[in-house]
Amino acid sequence: MTDTVTRDTREEAAPPKRSYAKFAADESREDYSLRYAPHSFRRWSPLTVAGTALGGIAYLADFAIGASIVFTYGFTSGLASILTAAVIIFLTGIPIARACATYGLDMDLVTRGAGFGYFGSTLTSLIYASFTFIFFALEGSIMAQAMHQAVGLPVEIGYLVTTLIVIPIVFKGMGALAKLQAWTQPVWIVGMVLPFVVLAFEAPDSWGAFASFGGTEGAGAGFSWIGFGLGTGVALSLIAQIGEQADYLRFMPARTEQNKRRWNLAVLAAGPGWVVIGAAKQLGGAFLAFVALEAVGKTHALEPIAPQVEALKPWLGSVALPAAALFVIVSQVKINVTNAYSGSLSWSNFFSRITHRHPGRVWYIFLNLAIALTLMEMNMFAALGKLLGFYSNVGIAWIAAVAADLVINKRIGLSPPYIEFKRAYLYAVNPAGFGAMVIASTVSILAFFGVFGRYAEAFSTFIAAGLALVLCPLIAWTTKGKYYVARPNPVWAYSRAESAGQGPEAGAADITATHTCTGCDTAYELPDIADCPVRSGPVCSLCCSLDAECGDACRKNPAAAGPVLMPLPTTRTE
């Protein structure tokens, strides 16, 4: 297709109407996996969305991670590592959580418009997908360990059971997830708190002894810069958790004058606030493992089920094992439905851009779970520290680059003040965020493998974060923000209203008005629509993504596209 396309040839060359497969067309299961989440779908209250998002952080990998850090580097260095990582995760998570909740976009779509470009964020989709199946495997391993101790089920079969049990819930989408998280929360809270209550009465001196614990590897109880750096790197592997929080936060209702206080608190708590609970769980898990160390040995102390049992024995006796197993299973189901759900979203985003096909989010659940099951069968739990330390170099470079764009570039005018996620308006790759992430992660990985010396190896994740934070605005300034939008969006003003917290009350006709997509004949709200010169009308973001024959005519010749949206008849969403 040539750059100059007349209206007559457009009509002749217009692609045929698209009909989506059964699962892809059912938004009750699809949950707008590749789209803007419309206001008509965001029916949950801020409290419900926040509760569902926080229900997903019930996982016990925090226990294992915290125990691994303290056992390896000692209490003092481990404590500093966990708290430092928590501060970094919290600060980078604030702008990301607010952007996802404000614009109704998941992490992948925000990444596109926050300095990475349409295809540039494909790499981050893989990074995020790997986060979900790595942590699914870790959590599944913990659940299999619990079932093995409770009923003698071989761990290899337990891995399969932990994988299959989440499929029916994840298959049904956000509605089923919200119910599961609400129903299981009381059991989880009791199971989380009870071991510490028992130890407060039965072993009140344990905390003092724990504070002088020098680890099991000879690190000593004092502070070590090397131990601090390496421990922080392991804890920072959880930084991509903000993506899973965002998968829920995109369903937050519009912020209005009436709900803004509840909205702000809900976004803060369910977004970056997860790490407050996460850090407490890491320290708590390390403490429980320390108390159980003499009774069960190092290997089992790092498995959350054994310390739970040892802590509960003084009060529950023979019931301690089944009670601890129930808690572990409930905790792991709560997080692994989130891992499987978020993984299906990230794989959908990845393959839709690579293959120009979308059979439906639910099919990618099986891909994500198959990879996770393979990792479990390979006993990846045994390599926990090294695996997470390596992963964190890439994860933090990505998250830091996105945060830098949202906090710095957009505030000083280096990038547009709104999040543009649609293919029709984006360059394939934006060097600002994508380049910053690639350079930062490459240098930090070289440091991680010892190329630049011992201290650089220990602080490789700090190198990744620092470089990404500096390079993203620097590259945007050098390129004068040229690669953020390939052509102006004629209707981007809706974003100003939303980003100002005015929501549908400020020009609701502009934000929630629907236009019928010329590709699939389905009505979508304005933020999900682009003007298409090939179809001579509005096209939804997913049809635009899947169109392999258009030749990107709208970006090659913006004048031919034209602002076709505004004059069209609109329908208000109820």
Structural account:
The protein is mainly alpha-helical. It has 28 helices and five strands. The strands form two sheets. A three-stranded antiparallel β-sheet has the order 2-1-5. α4 runs antiparallel to α14 and α11 runs antiparallel to α18. The longest helix has 36 residues. The radius of gyration is 24 Å and the shape is globular. The two termini are 40 Å apart. The N terminus and C terminus are likely disordered.
Structural class: mainly alpha
Number of separate helices: 28
Helix content: 55-70%
Provide the spatial order of strands within the biggest beta sheet: 2-1-5
Low-pLDDT ranges: 1-12, 493-509, 564-574
How many angstroms does the end-to-end distance come to?
A: 40 Å
Mean pLDDT: 86
Q: Round the Cα radius of gyration to an integer and report it.
A: 24 Å
Shape: globular
Structural features:
three-stranded antiparallel β-sheet; 574 residues; mainly alpha; disordered C terminus; single chain
Please write out the topology.
Blueprint: H1 7-13, H2 22-25, H3 27-30, H4 46-55, H5 61-73, H6 75-103, H7 107-116, H8 120-151, H9 155-164, H10 167-172, H11 174-202, H12 206-211, H13 225-235, H14 241-249, H15 260-270, H16 274-301, H17 305-316, H18 320-355, H19 361-377, H20 384-409, H21 431-448, H22 454-458, H23 460-478, H24 493-499, H25 508-511, E1 513-516, E2 523-525, E3 529-532, E4 537-540, H26 541-546, H27 553-556, H28 558-561, E5 571-572
Antiparallel strand pairs: 1-2, 1-5, 3-4
Helix pairs in contact: 4-11, 4-14, 4-15, 5-6, 5-13, 5-16, 6-13, 6-14, 6-15, 6-16, 6-20, 7-8, 7-20, 7-21, 8-9, 8-18, 8-19, 8-20, 9-19, 11-17, 11-18, 13-20, 16-17, 17-18, 18-19, 20-21, 20-23, 21-23
